[in-house]
Amino acid sequence: MQKKEFLQYLINLIAFFLISVSLTTTAMAAAFTAEMIEVRRNKTQRGMFYLQDNQYRMDFKEDGNHIAIIVNRNTGKTHLVNFEEKIFQEINNDGSFSLMNNPFESHAYTLKKYAATVVGTEKIKDIKCKKQEIKSDGKVILTAWISLKYNFPVKIINNLNNYTAVLTKIVNGPVDSDMFQVPSGFTRQVDTKSKKTAPKKKVAITGTKKAKAPVGKRLGPGGKIIVKVNPEKHIALFLISESKDAADIVVKASNNGKPVTTNFLKNNINLKKMLDKKEYAFENKLNPDTIEVKVIKGLVRVIVNQESPPWAKEKSKKTFIKEYSDGSFVTDLPKKKLVYDIIADSQDHSQSKIKVSLFQGKQKNPIIIETITLKNGQKKRYSFPSWSGIASGLIEVKKGDVQLILYPPSAVAEEESTSAKTIKKGDIVKKDNPDKKPKQKKPEQEKPKTASTDITNVMIILDASGSMWGQVDGKPKIQIAREVLKDLVPEFGTNIHLGLSAYGHRRKGDCEDIEILIPIGPNNANAIIKKVNTINPKGKTPLSEATRRAAEELKYTEERAIVLLISDGIETCGADPCKVGAELAMNGIDFITHVISFDVKKEDQIGLRCLAENTGGLFLNAANASELRGALSKTVEKVKETPEPILEEPGDASLEAPGEAPAGSRVKVKWEASKNSRTDFITIVIKDAPEGTYKSYRYTSTGNPVSLKVPDEVGLYEIRYLFGRTNATLATIDLKATSVTATIDAPPSVPVGSQLKIMWTGPDNADDFITIVTEDAPDGTYKKYVYTSKGTPVKIQAPATTGKYQLRYMMAKSKKVLARRDILVSEVSGEVEAKEAVPAGSDIQITWIGPNNSSDYITIVPKGTDEKTYFKYTYTSRGSPLKLKTPDKPGEYELRYVLSQSKRVLARTAIKLTKVSAQVSAPATVKAGAEFLVEWQGPKYESDFITIVTEDAPEGTYKNYSYTSKGTPAKLKAPAKPGKYEVRYILDQSR
Questions:
Q1: Can you give 448-470 as a three-state secondary structure string?
Q2: What is the pLDDT of residues 260-311, one digit of tens each?
Q3: Which of 465, 567, 803, 876 is the most exposed place for a label (fewest CB within 10 A)?
Q4: pTM across the whole model
Q5: Alpha-carbon gap, residue 34 to 30, rounded angstroms
């Protein structure tokens, strides 16, 4: 490990033990399932979280393996389970592994040193929480949000470690108790690293030592370290006490032998207790080149770190920089050739990572944005001719240090080509002599740039929702999309400026996961192809909001803008693609969305088709790779077509359509227009509506005839041809919306919570649905529902409470009820049977009768427990009879059948748990550290064990142990320290 890596590790370790993630230690009394999101060192890890009383479990993927961390707070034990290798380890909850990898258990350690302050209440994802803060030296270093409902944290932020943990998508209800057991057949592994060993004596410097930054050393009384540092770098000094008593330190700094003074150097520094820390930065204009630290009293960890500025300030006659700060520079040479070099030059790393952004304005209108990695001494040159108009740039050093050399115009000549050379990401050239001027080209060799003013801006939106991992012809859809885009994106040509957006590529279940990955600019094809290859689908499908944001990025209200959406599914974030498309089209100067539907069912294409048609764009469906290629090729050709000019004069128009049509249906309208501006559209409005009114509409540019949806309400309407520039009406024709009918057929009565089968007839318009509501619910109300597009019959779950209800057929747009049928939701009965008495902690067999609705369960609870309380349980879906492990505390209990929807107890029966006994027999005296045999008798439940502890050890304590599953006699090893001990038989369940 290199010095700096070791130093960073040490800092992180100290920071962790100073401020472990602090949550809550109150006893858990809840049960839920959630998704867990952790962000550590800018890396995000997602997994599942399960809580049941004083046990919880975290599941995640690590190097392709399914790993579970199962924690039992009653026993103080954690099981680390690897499902691929079928192995597990058992460790203490307060062991180093738990403290470093489990934010919840690290809290117990933290509260021994710190206390949390409640500063108010806030809602996290609609969950009301008490907000806790932990401060150190007056600064908030940790914030936790503790759910009032679950008495458990749902979010934590550690400002010191840059760590965040969030529990989201919380689902109430019991968790299968088997989740908290190591699966049978798994092999236990001994974690040699977690074995307790005698602590090593801390070695400290007591004399004088010289070193070079970065460095970390432990100093004892009289110890002194003299550290050489680079005065051109930012210098930080950390002092951490490692002694129980106070520590006194003297710090001196100098530059070329002359003292450098700061406020903190005027007096000796005092650290009052263990783990007290002081941090100092040298910010004077005259930085030191030497720092001397001497410990007068105590044991102190001394860390001297130095960080590079954004890049080394290299002075050279060949360097021309008018202005730069915070990693930016302004060339002020848009009419001259621009050549500059980035050279990796880091003392602390073998390579440097740099993000380069170049703009035509002052950080506006990006020409290129890319991240490059250079080894020390390697260089990347950027070269643009005079007509490129580069005016500013942003150089962000992510790792290492670089030199920036910007050559003046006198040192270079204009390029011969008429277009800028494409700079490929990672293009590294050998370092050359900056003093050697390039050969001047003759003026007559230079060719002027003939720039086209006919530029079209196109934002490509790629669906990166989780469904893009679905396969078509044996290949993932995302892979097919990558290959097709690679071949066809370059076909857009130079007059099309491209950008790239994506959604669902970073987080699961997040409707805000929308990102402009590459802003609009020329020569972006290669960058888009490379970026697409890095996208990994994960989340939801907020296609409507993604289209809106792309439109705003394109400044659609100011200039022509085109969006190309490639999606494999429907909107999943509650928005209406039809409505969004209509709004954007009406507000935009000339806004178009072309939609390619990839492997989408016909009934799910409605919203995508509507988004395209409402904006005058193409809608193309592709079922496989070949069709996707053809659809994208057709879209490219459409985009490249010279757009028709937007007319200022309307001309004449006429319409032809049926005189009447069923309400909610679609009607075809033929049209003729003498000029037909591409923004003209046809709409249906109520008879005699004011001039300029529009509702459902289609652009004439989508074809002839156009298809329009008739309003749901019966009545008289008008079909109108509107001139797009002014919304003036050019032609009208009357339309009568006639009544439609529907029927519903279902059983007159069904049990609560059961699956109900419904037969229906009706118009089956897009998004019509059937719902079940109370019989007196106002029209337009709906609860549980199912779309008619799923065919007949459809299934819906009956409510959890008895009563009179109504099934209703509802039209999507107006929520008008076309048909209704009364239905009675009746009571249901059930039975639970088992032995009247069984030993506590044993497995029992349960037979039951009941509805067996989805997630109904059988639980065992102490007699008299509240109705909605549950302890150990098992789902009825596993059949009858069922197996359930009883608690190991003797007493009177109840077995209960619980309905999942309402948590109502449907049936119950009493059961008595009788006391179990055990005996152990061992030698009265054994040698310290020697092995000995223990004869035992007992219930021999799974994971029961025999242990040896001091005779006054609290109940539940254990040291050396042996599982009873190994039989009798058990083999134990005596402690190494002589004394009086006890051999105990421990029930694993309660310990």
A1: CCCCCCCCEEEEEEEECEHHHHC
A2: 877 677 778 888 887 778 877 775 556 788 989 999 988 888 888 776 443 3
A3: 803
A4: 0.37
A5: 13
